[in-house]
Fold this sequence. Notes:
Strand content: under 5%
Oligomer: single chain
Shape: elongated
Radius of gyration: 20 Å
Largest sheet: none
Amino acid sequence: MELLKLATEWAKSEVFSTRFFILFAIIFLFASAGFWQWGKTDLAKAYIIPMLVSGLLLMTIGLGLFYTNKSRIVQFKKDFNSDTAAFYQSEIERSQSTLKEYTIVFKVIPTLIIVAALLFLFINTPTWRAISISTIAMLIIILMVDGTAHARIEKYYNALKLIDIHQISKK
């Protein structure tokens, strides 16, 4: 039962964490609406579309991860009760795979931030400045949320490795 509790707590933490993508998405969407409604300068008007796109991307990420992890909570119990050893093995493999993906994410996103910063420096038009700043802001939010998710999955993986699956299989 320790395994099921551990997996369920991890999934619930992920559900909570993904709400931050949704919260920031709403902030970006409100910012886009604010620039649309009250923006007077070319730069303010240039923020409308980039903030809207960033907000929609964050919302898509947040809702997708929210529903994926919410459904995992129910599925964990079914999988655990049907075949504990297979559930354990699948969670070990999934968490290992996710950790490898985060290694890539933490290299790609900073590179994209650098590219956006360089665009900001070298292309001096309101549209490209708005795109660059919106992109940097969105990517920083992704890094913050994914950084905590990485720490959680790493802790989860290490806790999984400490579980004696032979004791669980006998029960």
